[in-house]
């Protein structure tokens, strides 16, 4: 009798009993951006785009706390899972919030607190890269701008091929790129207008793998602005050729450039003219416009003739109100006075000499008459009467010849006093 079946059943029972011991505890607490817990949030555990487990964060109404609610305060708004060691996507869904996705690798019991933003302005891309010929763990997936073919962001690929790239702007066109040796994995261009989270797998019909050829190509712009940086790209098919020497002939001489990891070589357009890039048999010409010639200085202009401007004096403004009429009356009186003064001056100019002549003649006559009366008084005083002897002779005013007569009269008066 064989004991193999008996041992087989025993081994199976042992594995069933030990399986729960191999699972890892994964507890998720959900809060908003200010730290408030969000009970009732749907939490999903995914591998790829497949939902493995779904739970909701538990909560305890305040009314039940006094009744002995079995849920501890530290466990509120928390969802718990028992999972095998692996890498999982964690997707959160809640009414009024955009979907949130996180990528988590479990190798031990983990307690994780995640945040949901109610006003999120960007979206998240997550998915899986499939390539049967290579191990993708540790490789980089690049988010590319589809309009400029430049790298926007990079992210590490997990061992199972999962990736997650956050903060993509709605409305912009992107594509994903994975450099895999001589090949490159590319996704089709995509663009989303809403925030949230979107799944994209680089395999199958959604984003087929593209095997690229090794045909070199040197590309760049036909024209560039002065003082800008000219960038040319050297590709082997769609694979960048890193570390290659590209020769460029500039207006100032020849330079050797080295391509970077993206196959790009750059040079500063310091002068206007032709820039010729060369690698092997490939050539590329880039034209930089010459700077505009400086404008000729304007011919000196003769100075404008100076004009002396005489500003006429303005009569003072008449005061407003009832003072207007008296001002007019005073002006008329002044005119009358001025006319009278001018008339007097005119009369003086005409008759003044004649009047002056007559006044001089009258004065001369008066003086002659005074002289003749003075002479007669002197003769009569030499023969005074008795009555005149007893009284002094009157003093006659005058000048000239009358004065000797007065001096001659003094002895007579003195003689009269002696007789007395």
* Integer average pLDDT: 75
Task: Just give the CATH class of one domain.
Answer: Mainly Beta
The shape is elongated
* Spatial ordering of strands, largest sheet: 3-2-5-6
Low-confidence stretches: 204-214, 324-330, 385-390, 396-402, 411-420
Architecture of one domain, CATH level 2? Sandwich
Question: What is the CATH superfamily of one domain?
Answer: Immunoglobulins
CATH fold naming of one domain: Immunoglobulin-like
SS element count, helices: 5
Specify the oligomeric state: single chain
Task: Give the DSSP E fraction (strand runs of 2 or more residues).
Answer: 25-35%
Structural class: alpha+beta
Give the helix level as a range of percent: 10-25%
Query: From the alpha-carbon coordinates, what is the Rg to the nearest angstrom?
Result: 65 Å
Span of the ends, CA to CA: 223 Å
Helix/strand order: HEEEHEEEEEEEEEEEEEEEEEEEHHH
Q: Describe the biggest sheet?
A: 4 strands, antiparallel
- Number of DSSP-assigned strands: 22
């Amino acid at each position: 009798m064989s004991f193999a079946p008996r041992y087989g059943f025993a081994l199976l029972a042992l594995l069933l009993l030990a399986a729960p011991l191999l699972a890892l505890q994964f507890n998720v607490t959900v809060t908003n951006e200010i730290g408030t817990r969000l009970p009732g949030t749907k939490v999903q555990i995914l591998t790829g785009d497949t939902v493995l487990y779904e739970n909701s964060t538990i909560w305890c109404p305040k009314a039940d706390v006094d009744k002995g609610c079995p849920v501890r305060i530290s466990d509120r708004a928390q969802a718990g899972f028992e999972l095998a060691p692996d890498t999982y996507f964690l997707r959160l869904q809640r009414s009024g919030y955009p979907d949130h996705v996180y990528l988590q690798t479990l190798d031990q019991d983990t307690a994780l607190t995640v945040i949901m933003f109610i006003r999120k302005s960007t979206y998240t891309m997550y998915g899986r890269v499939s390539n049967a010929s290579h191990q993708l763990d540790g490789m980089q997936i690049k988010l590319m701008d589809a309009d400029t073919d430049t790298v926007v962001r990079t992210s590490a690929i997990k061992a199972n091929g999962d990736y997650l790239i956050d903060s993509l702007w709605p409305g912009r066109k992107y594509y994903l790129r994975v450099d895999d040796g001589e090949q490159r994995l590319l996704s089709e261009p995509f663009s989303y207008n809403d925030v949230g989270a979107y799944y994209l797998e680089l395999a199958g019909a959604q984003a087929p793998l593209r095997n690229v050829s090794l045909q070199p190509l040197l590309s760049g712009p036909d024209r560039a602005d002065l003082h800008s940086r000219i960038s040319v790209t050297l590709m082997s098919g769609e694979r960048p050729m890193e570390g290659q020497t590209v020769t460029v002939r500039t207006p100032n001489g020849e330079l050797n450039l080295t391509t970077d990891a993206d196959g790009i070589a750059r040079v500063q357009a310091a002068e206007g003219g032709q820039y010729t890039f060369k690698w092997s048999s490939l050539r590329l010409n880039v034209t930089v416009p010459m700077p505009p010639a400086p404008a000729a200085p304007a011919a000196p202009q003769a100075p404008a003739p100076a004009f002396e401007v005489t500003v006429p004096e303005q009569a003072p403004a008449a005061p407003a109100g009832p003072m207007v009429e008296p001002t007019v009356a005073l002006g008329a009186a002044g005119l009358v006075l001025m006319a009278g003064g001018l008339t007097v001056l005119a009369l003086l100019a005409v008759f003044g000499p004649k009047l002056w002549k007559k006044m001089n003649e009258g004065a001369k006559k008066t003086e002659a008459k005074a002289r003749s009366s003075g002479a007669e008084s002197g003769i009569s005083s030499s023969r005074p009467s008795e009555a005149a002897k007893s009284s002094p002779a009157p003093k006659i005013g005058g000048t000239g010849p009358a004065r000797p007569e007065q001096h001659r009269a003094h002895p007579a008066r003195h003689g009269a006093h002696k007789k007395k």
